[in-house]
Amino acid sequence: MTGIGKLTGKSEVLGRDICVSSEADVIVFFSVEMGSTNSTLSKIPNVEELMQETGFTPAHIVRLYDRFEALDKEKTGHLRPQDFGAINRLAMNPIGDRIIGAFFSPGQETVDFHSFVRILAHFRPADQKRPKDPSMPEPVNSRTSKLKFAFQLYDQDKDGKISRAELLQVLRSMLEMQVTEEQLESIADRTIQEADLDKDDAISFEEFRKSLEKVNIDHKMSIRFLR
Amino acid sequence: MPAFSCAFPGCRRDLLVIVLVVFVGIGLHIEASAPAYQSHGTEGSHLTNITNTKKAFPVLAVNYEHVRKPFEIALWILLALLMKLGFHLIPRLSAVVPESCLLIVVGLLVGGLIKVIGEEPPVLDSQLFFLCLLPPIILDAGYFLPIRPFTENVGTILVFAVIGTLWNAFFMGGLLYALCQIESVGLSGVDLLACLLFGSIVSAVDPVAVLAVFEEIHINELVHILVFGESLLNDAVTVVLYNLFEEFSKVGTVTVLDVFLGVVCFFVVSLGGVLVGAIYGFLAAFTSRFTSHTRVIEPLFVFLYSYMAYLSSEMFHLSGIMALIACGVVMRPYVEANISHKSYTTIKYFLKMWSSVSETLIFIFLGVSTVAGPHAWNWTFVITTVILCLVSRVLGVIGLTFIINKFRIVKLTKKDQFIVAYGGLRGAIAFSLGYLLSNSHQMRNLFLTAIITVIFFTVFVQGMTIRPLVELLAVKKKKESKPSINEEIHTEFLDHLLTGVEGVCGHYGHYHWKEKLNRFNKTYVKRWLIAGENFKEPELIAFYRKMELKQAIMMVESGQLPSVLPSTISMQNIQPRAIPRVSKKREEEIRRILRANLQNNKQKMRSRSYSRHTLFDADEEDNVSEVRLRKTKIEMERRMSHYLTVPANRESPRPGVRRVRFESDNQVFSADSFPTVHFEQPSPPSTPDAVSLEEEVPKRPRLKADIEGPRGNASDNRQGELDYQRLARCLSDPGPNKDKEDDDPFMSC
Q1: SS3 for B323-354, per residue?
Q2: Confidence band of B278 (pLDDT split at 50, 70, 90)
Q3: How far apart are alpha carbons B517 and B147 in whole angstroms?
Q4: Which terminal residue of chain B has fewer beta carbons within 10 Å of its beta carbon, N or C?
Q5: Rounded Cα gap, residues A191 and B642, in angstroms
Q6: Which one of A9-23, B53-67, B290-304, B645-659 scores highest in mean pLDDT?
Q7: Which chain B residues are within 8 Å of A21, Cβ to Cβ?
Q8: pLDDT grade, residue B487 (50/70/90)?
Q9: Higher confidence at residue B591 or residue B23?
Q10: How far is A183 from chain B (nearest CA, A)?
Q11: Which residues contact B66 (CB under 8 A, 6 or more apart)?
Q12: What percent of chain B stands above pLDDT 70?
């Protein structure tokens, strides 16, 4: 059975899961043995609740679990910052340290599988046909949640605003050594001025959201791997 | 807008008609009497030879034949442009009817007039069309192609272009063949290959028509790029199918090998075209690296390399359109980093101008050719063709969207699909391809008639009704807004974030490859193709600098910034006299003033209508309101006078204190005592620095000016004036012998 996209439910047949990334991409084939899926799922505590909360399918959970185990070199069941740091691509990334920091809740030294999945759930493509139920909590991969996640990466001190200093830090890390301090400050000034509507010299979440209203966040902040 | 105001309504229209009639009359009269003059000319010279002493020296002689061809060409172009002018003088008309329709009607009228006079109306020569009229339009489209939406949707676009066109061609060809088999139609002589050939000609969506119609309806970016991209990329398919079927219909039979070769040919044509275009693009980029001393010919390089790319690929029967697009896309980022601001404006201006003229001429000639061309009318065939066009397009779009939506993150809605289907207009390319058919095709005239009917139908009916339909269906319109530094920063941030998360997941996806491409570009490609030290400049900085420059220019032009005494500063004066350099702090202060000015007067972003032929953002003109202007001036004067009374040794606040409010920027006019300012020769890169960040980048040559002395206020005013003079000079036209000033890279709108 060849399936494109996600495998639904538990079938007893050897399956191939084709993962298609966005438009002009490499198609990666993952071969998933159904037998091992079940056994892997059973290893994870509270997996049903996790799937419910994040919206991942069993196949995704398994894939993420495999990745988690691959990262967890010492098999402790938790990831530490060093494990993340070992990923080459993160090390080269200008904001790699922030991304790693986002996985760790304040005060925690390790990340367990549940938190790992929860964070990654932000990057699932949004469900089109989700009924807007005001009583239910906002799903993790809605536009607002994604924006909030991005906002928190800027706002390191968690005061709900991106201050000028925080913005400067981000700019500095993105532009590395190529610009002077004055240039950075001018850009930061300009940025805040453009976005700051209530003139408090910082960017609040609403202002952040407003400045990105033209950008298709669903598209921009989704990884098709996690469909 | 129009200079003349009329006393009574409708006088403008009458005036226009009169002008038109006069013009056409002159043109036709001259054309008609051309042969007479020719014979007269030769006779005259003959006579003169024999009796050269008897005839008086001709004070005034007419020799039309000498200038005939250029004269006619110029006359046609002038007619086209006057028509275009006329339409915009009648706003009621141009709001309802798209320009392309009006132009075709004019063509019909002119063709009719010519026929009435008895002359042979000129037909749209395919050679002329493909080599002269089409390239400017495609280059304009390709050079200014919005890259981000294009690359985001390139898969969808390719599917529509390739599979959609194939589907259209075969569906139409097949069904028309089936139709011809029916006895009553009377076309039983038409074989399958001829029908398929016809199908392949008519099936391609035409970029010229799409551009002409879509630019007026301001549809949202996604749909626009889908239809437009499709119209550009289906050229490869059209070329292959056309050549294929033309070859086959000569031979008569098709084998499997031929089909296989056809598929291979498709890949060769499309990828070959792109490759040729990319090569020329890199050549152009490389050439532009060295043009810092000859700025005036920079635009020519862009045009010539692109045209060469087009011609070269046409030479090899590759897709010329794809070559042009590839050339424009590849060359743009590097060329734009190298050329001067003026060259950029020139390129933009010329491309828009040529493409506008081309488009006008194409539509007029289409009308004239309709009157001229040999026609063979067959009701059934023609009507069926039109209906089949619509049906196959709709079916194709729906079917393909169904499949594509499974792979897209942002799905195409029904409204989007409708506009994509309805916007599939046919145009002059189909006509020219049909015209190119050799006369050995027995059905040539019939095909031509059918093609023209389809074109008329799509342009008139679909073109006219698409605007009200868009309103009716409340399709999302284009949101035009100013480039925002916020968006740039956050988008780049998100790019990094997504790349990182992909890394965490162990997934080699979209962002990973994009990141790799960027890295490759930065380390290897930019080094070779960008002049000087610019290649190290991060994109964000370039973007920011361009924004600042653009707004500063806008400010000066709107008069907010008093551009003091530009008339007295002639080039002769500047050269012997050195320009006082200001310290870095002063630059910052000035910049902060500018920024504060701009921010305070900036209105909210509002959506503006986007026109292909608009050169600058329309925002610029009316962003400045009178009240704010006056307020700013008053504030400036207040501060100037405030500083004239400030004690001499008042310490200026540290630059670290950043207040973005205008009122508190109180160190702009801190003056230096005039005699201690060191004068230095003006340095080219630094003059625009007052509004850009260039002098801050350590790699650029910086003039060290030691401005010392107590901050007195005596020369306060004068220094401020000098600053403004410098600013004004750098932003005004420096003139030909100061071309070094244009060293700074330009900005993109």
Answers
A1: HHHHHHHHHHHHHHHHCEHHHHHHHHHHHHHH
A2: very high
A3: 15
A4: N
A5: 30
A6: B290-304
A7: 507, 509-510
A8: confident
A9: B591
A10: 7
A11: none
A12: 66
Partners of A20 in the beta sheet? Answer: A27
Please tell me the total number of residues recorded for chain B in this structure: 749
Q: Cα–Cα distance between A196 and A191 in angstroms, integer? A: 8
Q: Tokens 């190119």 — which residue?
A: B436
| Residue in B with minimal Cα distance to A207 | B486
CA distance B103 to B95: 14
Strand partners, A28: A19
Pairwise CA distance, residues B65 & B39, whole Å: 10
CB B454 within 8 A of CB B430: yes
Dist. CA B83–CA B21, nearest whole Å: 11
- Res. B401 pLDDT band, cuts 50 70 90: very high
DSSP string, chain A: -EEES---S--SS-EEEEEE-STT--EEEEEE-HHHHHHHHHHSTTHHHHHHHH---HHHHHHHHHHHHHH-TT-SSSB-HHHHHT-HHHHHSTTHHHHHHHHSPTT-S-B-HHHHHHHHHTTSPPPTT----TTSPPPTTSHHHHHHHHHHHH-TT-SSEE-HHHHHHHHHHHHTTSS-HHHHHHHHHHHHHHH-SS-SSSEEHHHHHHHTTTS-HHHHT--GGG-
pLDDT for the residue B185 = 67
Q: What tokens were used for B432? A: 């020219």
Phi/psi at B9 (nearest 5 deg)?
-65, 145
Mean model confidence pLDDT for chain B: 73
Q: Which token pair is B510?
A: 């979209």
Provide, as residue numbers in chain A, all residues whose Cβ is less than 8 Å from the Cβ of B583: none
CA distances (Å), B144 to each of A83, B49, B132, B224, B748, in order?
Answer: 45, 59, 20, 14, 10
Place of tokens 């549809």: B219
Among B410, B511, B540, beta carbon nearest to A175: B540
Contact list, B537 vs chain A (CB under 8 Å): 178
Ranges of residues in chain A with a pLDDT under 50 are 1-33
What does the alpha-carbon distance between residue B337 and residue B526 come to, in Å, rounded to a whole number?
Answer: 10
Instruction: Give me the residue label for tokens 């938190």.
Output: A115
Task: Report yes or no: A171 at the B interface, CB cutoff 8 Å.
Answer: yes
B733 pLDDT more than 50? no
Backbone φ/ψ region at B180: left (φ over 0), alpha (ψ -120 to 50), beta: alpha
- Asked if residue B738 lies in contact with residue B571, where contact means CB atoms within 8 angstroms, the answer is yes
Contact B176, B386 (CB under 8 A): no
Residue B310 corresponds to which tokens in the numbers above? Answer: 């087009």
Q: Which residues from B are below 8 Å from A120, CB to CB?
A: 501, 504-505
Q: Measure the CA angle with vertex B158, ends B154 and B164; round to 5°.
A: 145
Q: Is B583 exposed, middle or buried (0-12, 13-18, 19+ CB in 10 A)?
A: middle
Cβ separation B658–A186 shorter than 8 A: no
**Structure tokens, B309:** 């790319």
